[in-house]
Amino acid sequence: MLELKYREKFYDLKLCDKPDLQNSSASIGIEVTRAIFPNEGELLAFVNKNLSNKYSELSQKLLQKLGFENPPIKEGFFFVQKNSTGYKLLYFKVPKSESLILFGMISPLENINSCLSGTTKSIKDKITKLKNNYFIFGENDLILVIEEQLNYLALSEEIKSDLIHDIINIIKQEYALWQDNEKYEYVYILFLDNLVEIDCRNWEYQIKTITQEDWNFFATQIS
Q1: How many domains does the chain fold into?
Q2: C-alpha torsion angle, residues 37, 42, 48, 52 (rounded to 10)
Q3: Which of 106, 131, 161 is the last residue in one of the domains?
Q4: Which phi and psi (to 5°) does residue 164 adopt?
Q5: Could you say which of 89, 128, 179, 194 has the lowest number of CB atoms within 10 Å?
Q6: What are the Cα distances from residue 35, in Å, to 13, 113, 120, 125, 128?
Q7: 31 and 51 within one domain
Q8: Are residues 52 and 148 located together in one domain of the fold?
Q9: Over 70: is that where the pLDDT of 109 sits?
Q10: Who wins on pLDDT, 54 or 94?
Q11: What is the dihedral of CA 13, 16, 27, 222, to 10 degrees?
């Protein structure tokens, strides 16, 4: 998505480690994380193992064990498969094909505070790792993937704005603890249909909408 929305900056990203995405020619490193919530264990392991795989290739026996008794159904851009405990698996359909590709998992969040708790932990962990474990580039960025329920909670622009400012305050508080160490210059927050860019040098932000055409292009790149 970054390559789609910021072509002039992220034109040659390579999958690597510490950090996850790297553009050596532009000296940009990007770490990717998501808000992690308790009790996801076996399901999270299943999703991580099968990301970008076709639904038809997934173990139906294991899906049933995890509580996913029914097949995915179309909801907006995506196909959603729900289990009895409130978790959802997300799939998207490859253009001009019947294939459904596993894209991610949605936790059964109940409110924004649950998300902020997971977000705080993720940001703290990644700032610590940047200081101790990662190769430092000229520019170091972080992508934070936020759970999909926030699209429903954030139908109000006021709620969405408050959430973004809460995340900015979390980052500011962590940065205050690491005054003399390397920090992320930009933090990107990925909602399913929004990409928020936070400039940590001046704390300004902008929001870009992720369209159906963007998802279709993304699907063709990984299928």
Answers
A1: 2
A2: -110
A3: 106
A4: -60, -45
A5: 179
A6: 23, 12, 8, 11, 16
A7: no
A8: no
A9: no
A10: 54
A11: 10
3-state SS, one letter per residue, for the chain: CHHHHCCCCCCCCEECCCCCEEECCCCEEEEEEECCCCCCHHHHHHHHHHCCCEHHHCCHHHHHHCCCCCCCEEECCEEEEECCCCCEEEEEECCCCCCEEEEEEECCCCCHHHHHHHHHHHHHHHHHHHHHCCCCCCEEEEEEECCCHHHHHCCCHHHHHHHHHHHHHHHHHHHHHCCCCCCCCEEEEECCCEEEEEECCCCEEEEEECCHHHHHHHHHHHC
Give the separation between CA 64 and CA 190, rounded to whole angstroms: 29
Residues 9 and 27 placed together within one structural domain of the fold:
yes
Residue 168 lies in a domain: yes
Residue 110: pLDDT band with limits 50, 70, 90: low
- Under a CB-based contact definition with an 8 Å cutoff, are residues 92 and 220 in contact? no
pLDDT per residue over 118-177, tens digit each?
677 788 888 878 877 788 888 999 988 775 544 444 445 666 777 788 888 888 888 887
Instruction: State which residues form the domain around 46.
Output: 41-106
Tell me if 28 is assigned to some domain: yes
Name, in order, each residue with C-beta under 8 angstroms of 111's C-beta and a sequence gap of 6 or more.
153
The residue from 106, 129, 159 where one domain ends is: 106
